[in-house]
């Protein structure tokens, strides 16, 4: 199968339950928003290919599958991720405070050089706001992570956020490739898939002896 | 926070071991409403992989809880190296006499600072490339949650040293360990074994049902070397292995050759503990609710309205109801179990962290080593050596797992085998041919094959980890449990690829993307 992209980035969404992670993913991948959203329809990850400086970048964005709800993210979720969107809800103070906990969780489980970005979602709900934009910015400065307020509902800054994260990953990757040879650490691993049925090698060539 | 937990489910699964997780995924996949709980703060139960800190916590927990010692006991942790790295000054002193050693000298403090790079398995296992788990991962599409590496070589202990076992056809040709005549003999033997179907097998071996595989190989005129390879290394057996079992094991080994690599085996990246998590993820994607850190206090069955049996689970002063309870044997209240048929033998295990591979090779090896019993009364010992490329340990180290059926206790059963292939003095400066053991853990695990008290048809007990090399028993048991809960339903039909999921148009499309700052160059 011909490769239809130059880069493949695995991205994750992290944050408390209800902050709008699935909505952000939908906004970005389908350009859609559904208020009465059912979270149990089997979304695993979504794909969108974007164009960055003339390169095709395939973004594979994984949703938590609801496993964040009772502090049950699997360690496997973090494997191989290159970028993480940390999402809180500007109308929910607790979700903002928990960003620090999620960062600790990432430090424990994700690769040390994973790119991160903080999103303050639901910024369309100004009347219910509990977390000011300044506090979000301050937190981001504290952790030296980029920050933007988003609205999955009004499609505000969602594209900007993913383009920014992807651009940062790409820049980091190209810098690394210059520094060392590009042979990734993951060479030699197998992702199992259906292949054309073939007879066992043992039987196939046993007539020689 | 836990208390927005809904209370009514069709299936509740307690414990996140391999069998429980497969059943949870299978039930959720066909539309059952599933709650999956675990009393501890991580996935996998005794099937988990731990980083070095998590492992220390696990050891402490076992040592301080007599209840858990019913499952895991005889834990002995040992360090062979210093707490801290030598000070700068002492380094300079030794430098006068010697040039700097080429190898890093590890201290306990180095392990602590690199703790995250370890993924140590409590239940290390391999997958046969054409075994039931690989087929299940592919057919269910759960394979996308995991990655694997091929085992690069199979070794055995023969004539008091390590020997590579020729397992592919190319290996048989290339090996210098056996003569041309032996090669022909070996090829003929193995080729005929692969060729038998079940019927032919029954026919060919009808006179051998009460004889050993070794008798059969001897009868076929194989030389002692060849018998060693086939019996101990390929079939993984002992002298007493029944003939038919040996033939089946050989066939399984041979059938899995040539799919992914030079040996029949795959090892999961970051350890076997990733696999239950993959099944849990599928369960969650299809709506399963997950809650860790959630011990259960009681299990009762009662008859609800309309005479339907329901199972009521007490947990944190809340009652959770379900039609079917699937529960790991170690979490299960004793009164639900039938009086234990104690035919099961326990398992002796050990983990070693070393500073090099047991047999140097060009590329980083991933090794299965099979020891025949060294002494009368011993059982064969399986050894798995995994390196940094598997995500199991930091660069420069190897994690080595030993597994055997228990005779006395883990340390007496396994130490003498370890001494054959490791330097146990802790001396990291010596340039011997054996790697130095830096740390070790011995432990025994109870081998529990579940049996449930008669009459409780809505409670399904899952066995814990077995001593086998592969996951086959777990896969078979989970399918059996699933069939009891959901008769007539398909077991883990293929999940759609995310790319193929088309959403119905009941969504409101937002305003056109207006190109926020910097979106397009
Ligand atoms: C990843 C993570 C790790 C944490 N670790 C610790 C810790 O080690 N020690 C400590 O004292 N506090 C920890 N916390 C914070 C602590 O769990 C919460 O502040 C506390 O549980 C709040 O309880 P509540 O019932 O008031 O909140 P609720 O109102 O019940 O929670 C609001 C929402 O926050 C989310 N949430 C809350 N806690 C967690 C959690 N632990 N994991 C995932 N989602 C959560 C849930 O999605 C929930 O819907 C952690 C939080 C997170 C996110
Ligand atoms: N007003 C508003 N509501 C939002 C926004 N994003 C998500 N929501 C709503 O917040 C709730 C939770 O969203 P969801 O995407 O399921 O959150 P998740 O649990 O983090 O995946 C849903 O009812 C969404 O409709 C947003 O940007 N603005
Ligand atoms: Mg969601």
Automatic annotation (TrEMBL), chain A:
Origin superkingdom: Eukaryota
Membrane topology: Lipid-anchor
Entries under Gene3D superfamilies matching the protein: P-loop containing nucleotide triphosphate hydrolases
Main location: membrane
Family annotation (InterPro entries): P-loop_NTPase, Small_GTP-bd, Small_GTPase, Small_GTPase_Rab
Matches recorded under SUPFAM superfamilies: P-loop containing nucleoside triphosphate hydrolases (SSF52540)
Region (Disordered): 174-200
GO terms for cellular component: cytoplasm; endomembrane system
Entry's Gene Ontology molecular function annotations: GTP binding; GTPase activity
Pfam families per UniProt: Ras (PF00071)
Family of the protein in this entry: Belongs to the small GTPase superfamily. Rab family.
Name of the protein: (African queen) hypothetical protein
Taxon lineage: Eukaryota, Metazoa, Ecdysozoa, Arthropoda, Hexapoda
From TrEMBL, chain B:
Gene3D superfamilies: FAD/NAD(P)-binding domain, Guanine Nucleotide Dissociation Inhibitor, domain 1, Guanine Nucleotide Dissociation Inhibitor, domain 2
Keywords of the record: Cytoplasm, GTPase activation
Pfam family, one: RAE1_2_domI_C
RAE1/2 domain sequence ranges: 347-466
Stretches the record annotates as Disordered: 495-521
A cellular component term, taken from the record's GO annotations: Rab-protein geranylgeranyltransferase complex
Basic and acidic residues bias (residue ranges): 506-521
Chief place of localization: cytoplasm
Superkingdom field: Eukaryota
One GO biological process term: vesicle-mediated transport
Cell compartments where the protein resides: Cytoplasm, Cytosol
InterPro entries, per the entry: FAD/NAD-bd_sf (IPR036188), GDP_dissociation_inhibitor (IPR018203), Rab_escort (IPR001738), RAE1_2_domI_C (IPR054420)
GO molecular function, one term: GDP-dissociation inhibitor activity
Similarity-based family: Belongs to the Rab GDI family.
Main function: Substrate-binding subunit (component A) of the Rab geranylgeranyltransferase (GGTase) complex. Binds unprenylated Rab proteins and presents the substrate peptide to the catalytic component B. The component A is thought to be regenerated by transferring its prenylated Rab back to the donor membrane.
Protein name: Rab proteins geranylgeranyltransferase component A
Organism, as annotated: Danaus chrysippus (African queen)
């Amino acid at each position: 199968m011909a490769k239809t992209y130059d880069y493949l980035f695995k991205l994750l969404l992290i944050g408390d339950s209800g902050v709008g992670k699935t909505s952000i993913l939908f906004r970005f991948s389908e350009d859609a928003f559904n208020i009465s959203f059912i979270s149990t329809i089997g979304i695993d990850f979504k794909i969108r290919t974007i164009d960055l400086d003339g390169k095709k970048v395939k973004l594979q964005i994984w949703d938590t599958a609801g496993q964040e709800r009772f502090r049950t993210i699997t360690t496997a979720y973090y494997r191989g991720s290159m970028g993480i969107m940390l999402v809180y809800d500007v109308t929910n103070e607790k979700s903002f405070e928990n960003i620090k906990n999620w960062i600790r969780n990432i430090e424990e489980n994700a690769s040390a050089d994973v790119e991160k970005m903080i999103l303050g979602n639901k910024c369309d709900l100004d009347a219910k706001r509990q977390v000011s934009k300044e506090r979000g910015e301050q937190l981001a400065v504290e952790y030296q992570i980029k920050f933007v307020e988003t609205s999955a509902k009004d499609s505000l800054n969602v594209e900007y956020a993913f383009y920014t994260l992807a651009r940062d990953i790409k820049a980091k990757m190209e810098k690394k490739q210059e520094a060392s040879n590009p042979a990734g650490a993951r060479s030699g691993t197998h992702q199992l898939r259906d292949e054309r049925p073939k007879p066992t090698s043992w039987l196939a060539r046993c007539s020689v002896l | 926070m836990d208390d927005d937990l809904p209370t009514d489910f069709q299936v509740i699964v307690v414990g996140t071991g391999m069998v429980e997780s497969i059943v949870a995924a299978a039930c959720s996949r066909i539309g059952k409403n599933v709650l999956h709980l675990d009393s501890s703060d991580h996935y996998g139960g005794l099937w988990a992989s731990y980083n070095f800190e998590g492992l220390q916590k696990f050891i402490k927990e076992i040592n301080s809880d007599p209840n858990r010692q019913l499952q895991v006991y005889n834990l002995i942790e040992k360090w062979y190296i210093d707490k801290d790295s030598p000070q700068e000054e002492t380094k300079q002193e030794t430098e006068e006499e010697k040039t700097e050693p080429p190898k890093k000298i590890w201290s306990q403090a180095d392990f602590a600072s690199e703790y995250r790079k370890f993924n140590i398995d409590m239940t290390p296992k391999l997958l046969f490339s054409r075994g039931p788990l690989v087929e299940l991962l592919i057919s269910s599409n759960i394979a996308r949650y995991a990655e694997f590496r091929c085992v690069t070589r199979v070794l055995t202990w023969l004539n008091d040293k390590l020997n590579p076992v020729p397992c592919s056809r190319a290996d048989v040709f290339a090996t210098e360990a056996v003569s041309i005549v032996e090669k022909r003999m070996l090829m003929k033997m193995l080729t005929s074994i692969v060729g038998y179907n079940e019927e032919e097998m029954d026919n060919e071996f009808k006179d051998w049902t009460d004889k050993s595989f070794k008798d059969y190989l001897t009868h076929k005129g194989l030389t002692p070397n060849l018998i060693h390879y086939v019996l101990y290394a390929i079939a993984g057996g002992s002298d007493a292995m029944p003939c038919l079992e040996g033939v089946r094991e050989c066939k399984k080994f041979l059938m899995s050759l040539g799919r992914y690599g030079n040996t029949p085996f795959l090892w999961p990246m970051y350890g076997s503990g990733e696999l239950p998590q993959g099944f849990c993820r599928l369960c969650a994607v299809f709506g399963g609710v997950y809650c860790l850190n959630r011990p259960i206090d009681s299990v009762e069955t009662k008859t609800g309205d309309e005479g339907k049996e329901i199972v009521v689970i007490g947990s944190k002063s809340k009652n959770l109801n379900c039609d079917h309870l699937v529960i790991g044997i170690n979490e299960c209240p004793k009164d639900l179990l039938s009086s234990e048929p104690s035919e099961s033998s326990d398992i002796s295990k050990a983990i070693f962290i070393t500073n090099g591979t047991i047999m140097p090779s060009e590329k980083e090896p991933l090794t299965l080593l099979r020891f025949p019993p060294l002494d009368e009364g011993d059982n064969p010992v399986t050894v798995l050596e995994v390196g940094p490329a598997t995500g199991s340990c930091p660069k420069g180290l190897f994690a080595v797992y030993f597994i055997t059926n228990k005779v006395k206790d883990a340390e007496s059963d396994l130490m003498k085998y370890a001494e054959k292939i490791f330097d146990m003095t802790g001396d990291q400066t010596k340039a011997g041919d054996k790697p130095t053991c830096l740390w070790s853990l011995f432990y025994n695990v109870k081998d529990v094959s579940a049996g449930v008290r008669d009459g409780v048809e809505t409670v399904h007990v899952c066995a814990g980890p077995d001593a086998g090399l592969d996951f086959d028993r777990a896969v078979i048991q989970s399918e059996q449990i699933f069939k009891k809960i959901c008769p007539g339903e398909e077991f883990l039909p293929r999940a759609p690829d995310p790319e193929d999921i088309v959403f119905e148009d009941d969504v409101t499309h937002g305003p056109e993307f207006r190109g926020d700052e910097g979106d397009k160059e």
